[in-house]
Amino acid sequence: MAGHKGYGLAMAVDAVCSLLSGANLSCESSSMFQAKSNANTGHFLMALDINHFLPLENFKIRAQGWFDKIKGSKQRPHMTIMIPGEPEANRRLSAKNNLNVLKETIDMINQYNCNK
Question: Which of 26, 56, 93, 116 makes the best surface tag, with the fewest CB within 10 Å?
Answer without folding.
Answer: 116
